[in-house]
Amino acid sequence: EESSLHMNKYKIFVDLNTVTPNLKIENSELIQKRGGDFIEVAILGTVASYGFKSPMLACGKKARGFADFFNRMGFKVNFLSEEIGKASFTKMLRSVFAKGVESLLFEMLVAAEKCDLLETIIDAIVEHMDSSSFLNIAETWITTNVIHAQRRAEEMDHVIETLNSLRVKPIMSTATRERLRKCSSLNLIEHFKGKKPNEIQSVIKSMVELNYE
């Protein structure tokens, strides 16, 4: 709010903070009330790894020009939308995956070390993930979930029991079981007439139509 006091029609405020989409929208409204322009930027890579070439997304009425200008200087900025909030939604949703997988790995690998299987588990996961493109692996997970969600939820009961026996708190595994149970409750297998769908999009769109939360 304090920054908005210094804005006028000749100035552009570029917000690179990692915050919720709603907060970005609120910030843009404050800037625009003072006559300034607001550009939302989401940094998608770590600066420690990529430096100034960290991939970024830009949103706002002047975001396309912003992206063009900085790309000419060697930055990597992609224009996403004139609508404020889209870049932050993208970053937040990417974090669901990135931080979620990171946490899953910790839960799995600590348990593996406790039963002297750390290298074996690492090798098994690497072999699986390197066997195909990530898109193919993700499509397999999502589309077969339609058929196997209930069975997978039941399997997680045994996973949770195993982790507890190793004194590893099954935080992520318990959440996984609840998600699988929720998927199963939608009865997608009947929705798709007992057949595995061919693509991720059809599964996700059907889940949204069925008010998946």
Structure commentary:
The chain is of the alpha/beta class. 60% of the residues lie in helices and 9% in strands. It has nine helices and four strands; from the N terminus they run E-H-E-H-E-H-E-H-H-H-H-H-H. Strands 1-2-3-4 form a four-stranded mixed β-sheet, with helices on both faces. Helix 4 packs antiparallel against helix 5 (118-129) and helix 6 (134-165) crosses helix 7 (171-185). The longest helix has 32 residues, at 134-165. It is elongated and about 60 Å long. It starts with 11 loop residues before the first strand and ends with a helix. The mean pLDDT is 93.
In short:
By secondary structure, the chain is α/β, with parallel strands linked by helices. Helices cover 60% and strands 9% of the residues.
Q: What fraction of residues sit in β-strands?
A: 5-15%
Mean pLDDT, to the nearest integer, reads 93
Radius of gyration computed on alpha carbons: 22 Å
Number of strands: 4
Q: What fraction, in percent, of the residue positions are helical? A: 55-70%
Oligomer: single chain
User: What sort of overall outline do the alpha carbons produce when their principal axes are compared?
Assistant: elongated
The tally of helices reads 9
Low-confidence stretches: none
**Gap from first CA to last CA:** 34 Å
